[in-house]
């Protein structure tokens, strides 16, 4: 069996998994990795202003492609700069692998120059975080890290001391890419019947839909029609739920519409679909609740759930549909749609420019941006008012994408995402929406 250096094993395994670029800032402790990348065809090193921007860039690539993306930081400050961006990647549930270089292995524990403990630092923002302390660990740890990031849709971190990265180990041909399971998870019939009974016997059902509905648009509309249910969407679900949806009544929450809030609060039953919406004060705590989510840990986290179904949203709705009764009473739906039209009109009236008026109200700018953007535009927006205007004035059609730090809430994420997306989609019009107060951070990150 041939021998390779630890750096060669890591890079070759990443390439076998389809990785074509690594975002980061060079440093002595990363020399082993960067030297191998320089010598390999088919993978390139993308220099960034700082490592946080590299993590944001990797997160944007993973978000758009659904494939593994990679970033790297040298020892000490180099990898601690990754921290905020990796928190965002992990909370956004995108598959990212971070290479965190470490000081020489014999110096660990001696308060050496730039000493940190990345295997502790990154534990909370990763699904897998391990130190490669011996060359023979490299093959298995790298493969486990890749598989964990892809299957759990989260961050995996490999901590690699600089001296270890130059050492050699026996290396079989990379076994990756490992086939990602295409199996679908569907609850049992007993659980499905319990959910159907609750929904069938409720007079006013409202659906709250999130990013977990990404592949369930058709099923969502069918269920809304059967139940006569208005559909409220969470911010991360906007690009998936809003397009061509006659049952949509907007968002709720701090960025939302009164119509979305009232549709939920007036309901006697709530159907939560693929959402972990965090603001419990905007959810009806007295309504009987059915929740469907592929992640069992989300069930009951935000509201009292009477029937919880762990399963893929699309497949579970397909199994649930034959058990639902068509509701002829549409008063709850019609009232919610009327409220939405009124709320929409009020917001649109704030987005009108007047002849001779040189001021540029943000609502008007947002409306023009929406009108001028391409049908397949990718929008990135910063935290703060850009997110408000994006939530209220951007319209989605099934082709447009919206990327932001919607769970972690990190400022200055829009610009670093923009330039990597420009490489990935050079023919797509990309529109960054940085917050004014974030511009110094954004430009420093690019």
Can you describe this structure?
- The protein has 446 residues and is an alpha/beta fold.
- The chain folds into 3 domains: 3-170, Thiamin diphosphate (ThDP)-binding fold, Pyr/PP domains (Rossmann fold); 189-346, Rossmann fold (3-Layer(aba) Sandwich); 351-445, Thiamin diphosphate (ThDP)-binding fold, Pyr/PP domains (Rossmann fold), CATH 3.40.50.
- The chain contains 17 helices and 16 strands.
- The chain has helices spanning 6-16, 31-39, 51-65, 77-80, 83-92, 118-121, 138-152, 189-200, 217-227, 238-241, 258-265, 313-320, 331-349, 362-372, 385-393, 414-424, 439-445, and strands at residues 3-5, 21-24, 44-47, 69-73, 96-102, 128-131, 155-161, 168-170, 205-209, 231-233, 269-273, 288-293, 307-310, 378-381, 401-404, 430-433.
- Strands 3-2-4-5-7-6 form a 6-stranded parallel sheet, with helices on both faces.
- α1 packs across α2 (31-39) and α3 (51-65) runs parallel beside α5.
Keyword list:
disordered C terminus; alpha/beta; Rossmann fold; 3 domains; about 15% strand; 16 strands; magnesium ion binding; TPP_PYR_POXB-like; 17 helices; about 450 residues; coiled coil; globular
How would a crystallographer describe the biggest sheet?
Answer: 6 strands, parallel
Task: Give the total of domains.
Answer: 3
CATH fourth-tier homologous superfamily of the largest domain: Thiamin diphosphate (ThDP)-binding fold, Pyr/PP domains
What is the end-to-end distance? Answer: 43 Å
What proportion strand? Answer: 15-25%
CATH structural fold name of the largest domain = Rossmann fold
Strand order of the largest sheet: 3-2-4-5-7-6
Q: Which architecture name of the largest domain does CATH use?
A: 3-Layer(aba) Sandwich
Q: Regions with pLDDT < 50 over 5+ consecutive residues?
A: 436-446
Q: Into which percent range does the helicity of residues fall? A: 25-40%
Give the class-level CATH name of the largest domain: Alpha Beta
Domain Thiamine pyrophosphate enzyme N-terminal TPP-binding: 5-115
Coiled coil: 323-350
Keywords: Coiled coil
InterPro entries: DHS-like_NAD/FAD-binding_dom (IPR029035), POXB-like (IPR047211), THDP-binding (IPR029061), Thiamin_PyroP_enz_cen_dom (IPR012000), Thiamin_PyroP_enz_TPP-bd_dom (IPR012001), TPP_PYR_POXB-like (IPR047210)
